[in-house]
């Protein structure tokens, strides 16, 4: 009985797969003329990406900024991307990782590729307060940009993932993100000849291993970096790279406005956790779908009954050790590439960078007077700054220097499914 069911399923799968193969065959015929051009463009992009990621930086003196009796690492140019020894960066791996990043088959129903919520044309993130979610849900946090994530030692707003490899896996499997299952995703890869060939060439896999998919995606992400912003140019000696108002903004950043206390070093992030006062998301009170996702996350992360029923704001890092002092704290994000990633903060509560500057100027209070739901853990470093109108404009102008040009890319062609065996081979096997 069970066996019959399986073979019935297998038949159905084979029908679906051959239909898919037929469609792919038709579409690949149509585009056959330009395939080689596209292939060499993809290869060139991967090679250039690896080169740019690994290019050494001229030795930089270690500079400190002193403020209120403390010293902080000064903003600095971004160096070569760190690469873990067990996942060396090669052009072939990056090329494969790029295709996988855009492939919805790494996920539940095929609709949520990484690129669905990290849209290259719009900042490599999702342009809403909380992100698009797996169909039937919305996400509960703001989607972050992929650009420069290779430099973080901890990923996600609450720093819950330690590497891009681990992060890709949890993104593809997470219930409100990719919602994929390992065995199904691996089975899909096995039915795609181009992936079989590429995984074999890159990792030596006989059959594509799902764990290697995360390795390849992580390698691709290590080429999604930006090291030539006006700020980088300025810090490497091109004194004309910043305008007058940006220079004044930098002095505020390092001084009166105190941003350097947390947004410091090459990444403009100390990767520590703070509650800066971001108010809860109104949408959680008004949008039933957002409310459901939020409750689901509270439940899934092990909240007790009281918290599950009463919490109105994202407790952030609290979930990772259940320490009360961590409620409402999030990892300091980089300020790089933020020009292209509105809205801001873990729940997208602030619409523009000008709103962010006003928010800090008020001492971590939004324009409607609301602040964090967890006042006891709010950072004492966040207090009213008393910035003048010109000072705010200067600081805003300086924030612009953390971003260079938009990083764009061509979507790769998706390789098609093909049946593992010909009809003839199946007939032979039955004999
Ligand atoms: C359904 C939407 C969605 C999909 C699909 C998705 N992500 Fe994300 N991604 C997000 C959101 C939202 C966050 C922030 C979540 C959090 O911090 O809890 C995030 C965070 C990240 C981060 C951390 C960035 C940082 O600054 O720490 C990386 C890296 C990332 N995603 C990569 C991926 C990769 C790789 C895939 C595909 C395997 C993927 N994402 C699929 C929505 C999505
Ligand atoms: C006490 C540490 C701290 C200080 C000081 C600080 N920040 Fe932040 N910053 C953070 C943290 C933590 C977040 C994320 C908060 C959240 O989402 O709840 C953040 C978020 C941001 C964001 C949003 C980034 C994004 O991707 O959404 C911007 C922009 C920003 N800060 C700019 C500034 C500026 C400008 C200053 C100085 C006026 C400043 N910060 C001072 C810690 C700090």
Overview of this protein structure:
It is a single chain. The chain has 431 residues and is mainly alpha-helical. Among the domains are: 1-30; 37-66 and 78-226, Orthogonal Bundle (Cytochrome Bc1 Complex, Chain D, domain 2). The chain contains 16 helices and four strands. It has helices at 2-30, 35-54, 91-101, 114-117, 164-173, 182-190, 193-203, 210-221, 230-235, 244-254, 283-286, 288-300, 305-310, 353-361, 389-400, 423-430; strands at residues 64-67, 70-73, 273-274, 330-331. It has a two-stranded antiparallel ribbon with strand order 1-2. A two-stranded antiparallel sheet has the order 3-4. α5 (164-173) packs across α8 and α14 packs across α15 (389-400). The longest helix has 29 residues, at 2-30. One heme C (HEC) binds at residues 106, 112, 114, 116-118, 131-134, 139, 141, 143-144, 146, 149, 152, 155-157, 164, 167-168, 171-172, 177-178, 217.
Task: Label this structure with key terms.
431 residues; mainly alpha; Cytochrome Bc1 Complex, Chain D, domain 2; two-stranded antiparallel sheet; 16 helices; 4 strands; 3% strand; globular; disordered N terminus; binds heme C
Enumerate the spans where pLDDT stays under 50 for 5 or more consecutive residues.
Answer: 1-33
- Structural class estimated from helices and strands: mainly alpha
CATH level-1 class of the domain at 37-66 and 78-226: Mainly Alpha
Q: Count the E strands.
A: 4
Rg, Å, rounded: 24 Å
Largest sheet: 2 strands, antiparallel
The percent range for helix content is 40-55%
Number of H- or I-type helical stretches: 16
Q: Average pLDDT, to the nearest integer?
A: 91
Bound molecules: heme C
